[in-house]
Amino acid sequence: MAKNKGTRILITLECTECRTNANKRSAGVSRYLTQKNRRNNPQRMELKKYCPHCNKPTIHKEIK
């Protein structure tokens, strides 16, 4: 028997300032992997996390 999908899914959070910031410390885009509960948070998540490329805490948004 096949199991149903759980409520927790893996999502990727990407830095919003790395795409437009020309004064970055290093090349690249900061990404974090985390989980979210699809029943409690049906919309896309935004978290403030540390970006090693921008060298400061920035807003990271959920991407597909």
Automatic annotation (TrEMBL):
Belongs to the bacterial ribosomal protein bL33 family. It is found in: Plastid, Chloroplast. GO terms for molecular function: structural constituent of ribosome. The keyword Ribosomal protein applies. This is Large ribosomal subunit protein bL33c. GO terms for cellular component: chloroplast; ribonucleoprotein complex; ribosome. GO terms for biological process: translation. Keywords: Chloroplast, Plastid, Ribonucleoprotein, Ribosomal protein.
